[in-house]
């Protein structure tokens, strides 16, 4: 029986704009996603018995069918009629309910991995459609690179930034977590203002031209007001990051993780030390700029 080791990166949203609500209840977004050098490690081992087993080390995750990685395996088995099972081992380093895409990235890794191990030969476009059934962020993770993302998350347009990012990131998550659904609900009920998608477009253009200086100016998240409404204490994280020298501090996904953007290593170390004393998850990371390994058929 075969086994496969996979890396499931975390992501940050450098810009997240909410354009409006769709007839299906989801929200139309425009966003720039960046992959990190930090993430979960998965091992998939094929089993003869028809079961999907999950073993997790590190951060606690939902068990059974609540878990997106398990659902990814069950979905493939059901659709493609595989008789055997799989054991999924996850070294869980990405916190859950953080806005870092951990669950979606694990699910995408399971889709990629089982496509290989079960020799299903599913083309990337179809794999992305299966991913979208599991969650809005899953199609993005089938790419693993910088991307402009639209629709409810299913439109993924990869791009390759020029030059090297001059920034190091500090990811800071308070003890509490947020459910994406609750944050979108609050966004709607409070009538927070909507965007036209121009910020995401501008950032993509700037990065494609190697203009990394534009990032601190353009980084922003329309869901921030709603997330702060639900967890008022996170506003202090943003202020602290700015006071400690971050050139920008913004929320990723639906939060509550804040991303501090630092140019200098010394400031970053000082900020990391200060915040580690107070908060349970403080982690340095770098954005990964590299060409896509994936199939270009996902381009729209
Ligand atoms: O797709 P996913 O299961 O990750 O989404 C969780 C919830 O977040 C959805 O049920 C929906 O309420 C909300 N959502 C949304 N618009 C999006 C993505 C998610 O309203 N683009």
Automatic annotation (TrEMBL):
Pathway of action: Isoprenoid biosynthesis; isopentenyl diphosphate biosynthesis via DXP pathway; isopentenyl diphosphate from 1-deoxy-D-xylulose 5-phosphate: step 3/6
UniProt-listed GO biological process terms: isopentenyl diphosphate biosynthetic process, methylerythritol 4-phosphate pathway; terpenoid biosynthetic process
EC number assigned by the record: 2.7.1.148
Domain of life: Bacteria
Active site: 11, 137
A Pfam cross-reference name: GHMP_kinases_N
Signal peptide range: none
Segments forming domain GHMP kinase C-terminal: 203-278
Sites where the protein binds ATP: 95-105
Domain GHMP kinase N-terminal: 67-144
Key words of the record: ATP-binding, Isoprene biosynthesis, Kinase, Nucleotide-binding, Transferase
Catalytic reactions on record: 4-CDP-2-C-methyl-D-erythritol + ATP = 4-CDP-2-C-methyl-D-erythritol 2-phosphate + ADP + H(+)
GO molecular function, one term: ATP binding
Enzyme class: transferase
Record function comment: Catalyzes the phosphorylation of the position 2 hydroxy group of 4-diphosphocytidyl-2C-methyl-D-erythritol.
PANTHER family: 4-DIPHOSPHOCYTIDYL-2-C-METHYL-D-ERYTHRITOL KINASE, CHLOROPLASTIC
Family: Belongs to the GHMP kinase family. IspE subfamily.
Designated name of the protein: 4-diphosphocytidyl-2-C-methyl-D-erythritol kinase
Gene expressing this chain: ispE
């Amino acid at each position: 029986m075969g086994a496969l080791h996979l890396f499931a990166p975390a992501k940050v949203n450098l810009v997240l704009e909410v354009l409006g609500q769709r007839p299906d209840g989801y929200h139309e977004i425009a966003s720039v996603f960046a992959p990190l050098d930090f993430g979960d490690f998965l091992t998939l081992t094929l089993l003869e018995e028809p079961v999907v087993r999950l073993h997790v080390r590190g951060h606690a995750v939902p068990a059974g069918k609540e878990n997106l990685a398990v659902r990814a395996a069950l979905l493939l088995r059901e659709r493609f009629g595989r008789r055997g099972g799989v054991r999924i081992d996850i070294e869980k380093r990405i916190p859950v309910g953080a806005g870092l895409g951990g669950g979606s990235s694990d699910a995408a890794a399971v889709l990629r991995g089982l496509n290989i191990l079960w020799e299903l030969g599913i083309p990337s476009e179809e794999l992305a459609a299966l991913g979208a059934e599991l969650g809005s962020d899953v199609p993005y993770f089938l790419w693993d690179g910088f991307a402009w993302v639209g629709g409810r998350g299913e439109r993924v347009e990869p791009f390759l930034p020029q030059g090297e990012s001059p920034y190091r990131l500090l990811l800071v998550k308070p003890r509490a977590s947020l459910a994406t659904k609750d944050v979108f609900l609050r966004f709607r009920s409070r009538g927070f203002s909507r965007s036209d998608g121009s910020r995401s477009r501008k950032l993509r253009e700037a990065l494609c031209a190697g203009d990394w200086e534009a990032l601190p100016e353009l980084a922003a998240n329309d869901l921030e007001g709603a997330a702060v409404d639900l967890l008022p204490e996170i506003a202090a994280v943003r202020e602290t990051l700015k006071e400690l020298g971050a050139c920008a501090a913004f929320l990723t996904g639906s939060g509550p993780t804040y991303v501090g953007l630092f140019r200098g290593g010394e400031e970053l170390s000082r900020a990391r030390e200060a915040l580690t004393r107070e908060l349970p998850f403080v982690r340095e990371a770098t954005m990964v700029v590299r060409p896509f390994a994936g199939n270009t058929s996902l381009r729209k």
